[in-house]
Amino acid sequence: MFIFILLPLLITLCYLYFYAKFSFWRDFEVPYCVPRFLVPKYADIQSAYNEAKREETVIAGTFRVTRPIVIAVHLDVVNQILVKDFQNFQSRSYHQYSNSEALSLLHQAGGDKWQNLRSRLSSILSSEKMKIIVPTIFHTGDGFNKQLSTLVGERGKIIDITNITKRLTVDIIGDCLFGSKDEFKNEFNKMVIKYSLPEKEIIGSGGYLSRVTMLKENIAKKFTKLVNETINYKESCTNSHNGNDFMDFMLELKKEGNLSETEAISQAFCFAVAGFKSIAYTLSYCLYELAMNSELQKQARVSVKEAILKHNGYTYESILDMKYLDQCIKETLRKYPVVPATSRLVTSDFYCILKRGMQVLIPTHSIHHDPEYYPKPEIFDPSRFTDEEIAKRPPCSFIPFGDGPRNCLGNKLAMFQLRIALTSLLLNFTFHKCEQTAEKLLQAKSIGSSLKPEKSIYLKMVKL
Ligand code: HEM
């Protein structure tokens, strides 16, 4: 009885239900892609993007389970969402909260809470604070190179480059966050290395950027304890408060009544996580491309040396004057945007399609690989980022850090970290392809929260 009457009825009802749900985009005559596994992977987004370009529509659609998601395709729409009409798209599309203490992370906050937190935290990452923090990064780079020289030895060594860039990034973050007190930064480094290298990750994978909420509980506890101890230590002895690390900057805000202790812990965690893989992978991708093209590598090294000569030393000013190195970094962030998509939530109805509560995806990776803006997008070509070439491209065609009032808060710091790490590596070593180096880098299949190479990147490092 069940098999002959109820089962076909159930199947028909299910079919009608999903047909009705998935007809959303069809009714609006917008090209769309139904994800194969309920939640869209980057391949689904790319395929909807391609379809929209073919049909010359300004948006495309997809679904998260059965909920329609808008994909912004035309750069005017991207600009409108991220910049011009930002007040209608202030929040990101997820509101998952971890059961750990790391609750008030800037990434997840929406509306007034976000605005309030962002304006307080912006002062920590201002240009003045960058000038204070940059010598710390120089110092970390130097120390790291000494260790690396021993590892590489006199005859050079084949190395999984991401292991190196992850260790260097952890050192930089540890020094910037915890400053001069070795005990705390060593504990931090041990913690990250233990849980993250070589394969294990500190965090699980989630939606775009929601990875910060997927923190494993034991690590959240350890991190909270470590930051608490650092705060107590810094508050208890006056000479430890030398004012040149992020904990010091946050304690200044706390003293002025502008940041609670929980917020300080959350943000310390947020800075550590936001900068870790993004910086490490960007460095790896850049070194890979420079190893594959020794002429570009030479040019980058020359640009570094010239800037140092011009400014009489390795200074804040010289770092800002390494034009060609900057072009290499930007081309890396173009070809390998480590955050391949960002998103916004529609907070009030906008035209007839964008209804309050809908998620809008900004497909950074697709935009950066669109031949309309970047001919032969698979070729690594830093000359795309001369001032003249940049001026030829429309707004929002290069968005590795997002754009508008809700762009990456750490973008200036990230650029300094990348420039300094690359400078110190290029001044001390050369990078070469070897037998184990893949001719083409494949990305991990499930491009979700962040772009990462499918396999280890082996390069031969030789001391200069
Ligand atoms: C290569 C390095 C990095 C890349 C590519 C990157 C990229 C991004 C992107 C794409 C967003 C979303 C922007 C948007 O939705 O418009 C973001 C947000 C954010 N990033 Fe970064 N990031 C990097 C490094 C860092 C670092 C080092 C920090 C911290 C010190 C940081 C802190 C943040 C924060 C706090 C947000 C949330 C901003 C908000 O919601 O107001 N990022 N990042």
TrEMBL record:
PROSITE patterns: CYTOCHROME_P450
Similarity section: Belongs to the cytochrome P450 family.
Binding site for heme: 408
Superkingdom classification of source: Eukaryota
Cofactor: heme
Lipid bilayer topology: Peripheral membrane protein
Entry keyword Chaperone: no
Assigned keywords, A-Z: Endoplasmic reticulum, Heme, Iron, Membrane, Metal-binding, Microsome, Monooxygenase, Oxidoreductase
GO molecular function, one term: monooxygenase activity
Cell location: Endoplasmic reticulum membrane; Microsome membrane
GO cellular-component term (any): endoplasmic reticulum membrane
Gene3D superfamilies according to UniProt: Cytochrome P450 (1.10.630.10)
Membrane spanning residue stretches: none
Name of this chain's protein: Putative cytochrome
UniProt xrefs under Pfam families: p450
